[in-house]
Write a structure and sequence with these properties.
Length: about 300
């Protein structure tokens, strides 16, 4: 089982799942994606295309022996896992996508905006919906990076907050990043925020902070700036990106950005997956941390049912 993290994270986010599935007898691996943690940090933004990252994972998979694996992704890790399954299906026996649906045409701002729930985000007020923060990376990249790096610990602590059921059907703060002049507004730095030890164990959070203090946010933020290349790469996938292997999608019910509940965001995935299982957890975006045991059980049950 190969576990792929998202933004802003490192492989250590999967600690609970790694320990659980290793105890079940699986060989579990959780790499740091390029730009993150202990991985390489190329300078050019175009070094962070999906094609490059999938190639990294293919090389890692070869190094591990190349036998078909279960790929488990969260956030951007789900995007990578889906792309790898679409381009090199022989490397996968099944795919788990947490907190980010599969988009066969490529994970572009254009695709995401086309699926925005306009009952929450009227186009005249929120042209990019909850994805305004992604738009901001493409128009104010250096400023967005500088704001995050002004206080790495506070930036990470403010990002890692549990889901709130009261937020459902309300406008996300990430929908107003552009009009506010940045994620943290005029302050251009995250407010002092105490990390939630119920999510990240204290020692693990310290490792996370050190990783971003060492390498910064430039590489990770570059993930958001390669839409054209990523869409072109998606068009190279087999069978128009249709996934033939079993897919489990785990939704966060209180996720203001990525939830597929009550909107059309899951429709492209449903159309492109031949064997899709959907389940939901009462949590926000950080499913590997917010619902450690529940996510493990959801994956275990799916593996058992699918005889993987």
């Amino acid at each position: 089982m190969i576990f792929l993290h998202g933004f802003p994270s490192i492989g250590l986010i999967w600690r609970a799942q790694l320990e659980a599935f290793a105890a079940d007898g699986w060989h579990c691996v959780a790499p740091d994606l390029r730009g993150f943690g202990g991985s390489s940090v190329p300078a050019p933004k175009n070094a962070y295309t999906m094609k490059e990252i999938v190639a990294d994972m293919a090389e890692l998979h070869d190094h591990l022996g190349g036998k078909p694996a279960i790929w488990v992704g969260h956030d951007w890790g789900s995007i990578v896992a889906g792309a790898l399954a679409a381009h090199e299906p022989g490397r996968s026996r099944g795919v788990v996508l947490a907190s980010w649906a599969y988009f066969p045409e490529g994970n572009s701002l254009r695709t995401l905006v086309s699926l925005v729930d306009r009952t929450i985000y009227p186009a005249d007020q929120y042209p990019d919906g909850q994805w305004d923060y992604v738009h901001y990376y493409t128009t104010h990249f250096d400023g967005a990076v500088a704001d995050l790096e002004a206080d790495c610990e506070a930036s990470l602590a403010s990002a890692y907050q549990p889901g709130n059921p009261a937020s459902i059907s309300k406008v996300s703060p990430l929908a107003t990043v552009t009009r506010n002049g940045g994620r943290f507004g005029a302050a251009h730095r995250a407010p002092p925020t105490h990390p939630d030890a119920a999510l990240w164990p204290v020692a693990d959070f310290e490792v996370l902070v050190q990783a971003f203090e060492s390498h910064g946010f430039r590489g990770p933020c570059a993930l958001y700036t390669n839409d054209d290349a990523n869409m072109a790469y998606a068009r190279e996938a087999l069978n128009n990106g249709r996934l033939s292997r079993p897919v489990l999608f785990v939704n966060g019910d209180f996720d203001q950005i990525c939830s597929i509940n009550g909107n059309r965001q899951g429709d492209p995935m449903r159309a492109a997956c031949g064997d899709l299982t959907e389940t939901s957890l009462h949590a926000g975006h950080w499913l590997p941390l917010e619902r450690k045991a529940e996510l493990i059980q959801a994956i275990r049950a799916w593996i058992y049912i699918k005889k993987l």
